[in-house]
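Dear colleague,

Thank you for sharing your sequence with our group. We've completed the structure prediction you requested, and as agreed, I am returning the results in plain text so they can be pasted directly into your records. Please verify that the sequence below matches your submission; if there's any discrepancy, let me know and we will rerun it promptly.
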Amino acid sequence: MSKHKLDDAALTFPYIHPPQRTCVCSYQVLPDHEQICCAICSSTFHMRCIANSDGMIRQMIYDAMQLRRSPMLGSLRWFCDQCSYSISEFKSNSATSVSSVSDEEGASSSTRASKRHTSSHRGACKPPVPANRIWRRWNRIPDNPSTRTSPASSHHFSVISYNILAKTLLKKNSWLYDRCDQSALNWPFRWSNLSQEIKSFNSDIICLQEVEGTDLEKDIRPYLESIGYVTHYKKRTGNLPDGVLIAVKTNNFEVLDVVPVNYFRAGDPLTDRENVGLICVVQMKSTDITICVCNTHLLYNPKRGDVKLVQLCTFLAEIDRVVKQHASKHMKLPAVVICGDFNSTPFSPIYEFVTAAKLVYNDLCMQELSGQGNGNYHPKLLPVPLLPDVLDIDKDCRFQEKDKSGRQQQQQTRGQAEQLDTIRHQVGEVKSCNDQHRGYEATTTQDEGITVDYIFYSSANQASVPPPSSTSDDDVSFTELTLKMRLSIPTSEEVARVGSIPNQIHPSDHLPVAARFTVNSHRQRQPQPKEQKQQRRARR
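Please find the predicted structure tokens below.
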């Protein structure tokens, strides 16, 4: 059986049904220790069906369940392949009767014979799907031979990002939820489901959006602290009720630095919105590996892609500054994980900018930047240059120095007219946890189902290495991330099938996205100033 076990990297499925009491062989099972229950669909397998059955039943059980164990639940649970990985489908003629099962106390011989007659495997791995539930599964990422590392030298951590729908925003836009079950919209009911759902992931890092301040102090922070997290929160400016939150497991991580990010700047229409971001630099307690965890919620307005892009540039510039400061102080380059609701689809220019680190925008309309537009607008091209002076951010998404060198950089940028319509960021090679995006995936019900929620990640970027100094050695510690598992994203049809959400099972109008990484650290010779200059020229 050991070869069928899921290793310790396994994660529990987030939606777990209570176990049933009837085995697939139709024999009643009373003691918990005598049953194996699928933690997802609740299909129950009698232990004796495996121990005492003939070869066909034994093989069928192996194929159906593969005895996948989750260490995250605290008690033993088993995963049915049809539910957790959807890799097998069984026909009724492949089943066979169980030849030997213990008699129930007091049962007649005729009853036992009748039960043996109906003791075939009846597709227990394909239970009726509740109409209001969206089924998801964990997908393993195949190992890349070129980046494969020894298990002894790697460490694991998991991340979840979730827009939980602030209650004030729900009330303000109540017309969007007219078709929802109204009994499922009140905050106490939704928080009860949210807390159970968040706990079931057992993630090391939690990033939440639309966290209302009053609910944070009353419900969210006390609960997260009670299950072992430390929380950091950034409220939206302008007396708006909600904000973003990062929670970190205290037994696995230590928080080294917390940086709130405001996008609001007075004096320019591209910077007058109240959205925010939050950055936490954390260090694993089992090692000296550091990770820069970032969380944001960009503007929703589908027609104002220009504002979203400026907000994103501000956030990326702040991430670059935080990474540089940490590298300069500790000679350790943290990897970067960026979570949030970006209000942009996977095929939008904004998504392209994040993953390609470059965007030429001179012929782009502001209404098309996020991919949410419906075509009912008068096209308006983006201004060139895009980034307002009030931000003090250059076209490489880096904050400019407010001194003579900064003035010289501005003059040099004006002289490079052919590059004014191009912006870049310095976070490095950024990937999405679900980089194989299909056009019909959906993390929210808006626009009949689209993807706007992401977990992006990037290994330490050598461009962020600080210049050598006489007090530092020539080696810099780099952190590398490898995606190992990701939670599948349902199709828009699957989301539409359950109707409007929130409902009795799904407590928000967004779905959580989650991933698990391995992380490794290695040291590399620090580039000298001449080498850094050549690297910058090559990137241009």
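Summary note from our side: The CA atoms of residues 89 and 338 lie 37 Å apart.

Kind regards,
the structure core
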